[in-house]
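Model: Ready when you are.
Researcher: Fold this.
Model:
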Amino acid sequence: MTNTILENKVAIVTGGNRGLGKSIAIALAEAGANIVIVSRNVEKNKEVEDEIKKLGRDCISISTDLQKKDSIDNMVEETINHFGKIDILVNNAGVSTTKFALDVTEEEWDMIMNLNGKSLFFCSQAVAKHMKEQGSGEIINIASVVGAVGDVGISPYTASKGAVINLTRSLALEWARYGIQVNAIGPAYIETDMNRDALRKAKVDNKILSKTPMKRLGKPEELNGAVLLLASEGSSYITGQTIFVDGGWLAQ
């Protein structure tokens, strides 16, 4: 490994055992960071943990119910007990459902807002308490292009990601005095193993491509440049911002 811009940093990645989260966790490890994989699935967590250890980095995985504050606080305590510090938090965990607004149930609304909004806030709060004491830290929230514009059939998701973008601004304003930077990344549609079949349906694919000047879906690794920028000294004067990785979606 030659890229060591994050040498000896400690990074927590929520939802880090698959999809975008796994790609981000591996990219951070390849850049020198030690990693904490956070998700409920113990088996999947361990698979990524082993993969990162093969890169020569220390990695632990913590099974966490991100919708419960006590579970979040325990995850942060375990991280501190193992590594002694937290330098980077990537709030990646999220969920969505595809339904027209008239059909969304209360349970679906609560599930999406709790995981995409509530858990992100309390993960940030718990980690920021330690970052405040050390006088530094990078919090990176995974938002979405649809947090900045509307879309059809995913209204709770768009609401939650709009909240992420504005929460990023507010936390950046509050925590700048402590040396904590808070930024977000807003991807458009990124193709992963989990969503490939759904996104490749002709109707869905055509809808997405019609809104994307680059006329293709994104790849997980295409978020890594933005993540590494925001996690490193390269972003030392950037806070409260959302970087959109969207193939030109918002340029229209």
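Researcher: Now this one.
Model:
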Amino acid sequence: MKILVTGANGLVGYGFWDLAKKDPEKYILAGRSKIKYCGETRKGYDLTSPTETEKLFFDYEPTHVIHLAARVGGIQANMKYAGEFFHENIMINTNVLECSRAYSVKKVVSFLSTCVYPDNAVYPLTEDQIHKGFPHSSNFSYAFAKRMADIQSRAYRKQYGSNFVTVVPNNLYGPNDYFDLENSHVIPALIRKIYEAKHNSEPQVGAGVCVWGDGSPLREFTFAPDMANILLYILENYDGEDPINIGNTNEYSISDVTMLICSMLEYEGSIFWDTSKPRGQIRKPSSNQKFLDLGWKPENYTTLENGIKITCSWFEENYPNIRGA
């Protein structure tokens, strides 16, 4: 088995680096900037390019693909760069799945997102609802691009018999995240804001941490390092046509998450809620029952408290040498 992991330099992809060290001939870790296989590091491939994607498959001939590569960001980035998010993700998914078909890859596991669900979906989010309505307006372009990965996988199944499956995580966080203040997801953005507010040597008048919304929306969070094991479990145990939710389904309010990060970083300053800014959907709980029915145990997920503790410690040790700085 030779597993190509696309987006290996991203948050989830980093979870495969330790696995690759133990079994270097099994994993091809591909990112846009670099690719690592059997201890060798080479220039990466631009998966928005059909030519470069085809060259990746020709050069390494993977038998299996875990497809993580995507253009991602938080609510602000999704709203500001809607066109770019759609185009880049459509091209990445199209190229990777087509090359997987052309090179007779035995199985592909593609990463979707909970934002693929309709804004008016019935809670908890179950996989049969994905295509039954318009996604939330704040990230509609990214959501539709991700939905098309599911459609392409289904179409290739029907015509070519390809064993292409799709999985739906929820909000991910962890070490090696992208900590840009404007374009990252909620947990990394909060960690950086709170850390820098604590260490600001020249505090301004009214200084503190400003957070979008009112803190009331509820979100589910999964510790990204858990995902390597989850995806390998899916690779071995799920061949279904329908997407499958794989995230930790415990809900936490943005306010609770903010206070937890403040506690971990020992920040005692002010928090300001900017209610003039969008807060996103009030909640979007998902059901991972199909995944649990495959034998995955809830206790295999890292708790939010432990995950944030690990992530904050990693951030403090590596700041300012972090992605997005």
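Researcher: Key takeaway?
Model: The longest strand covers residues 218-223.
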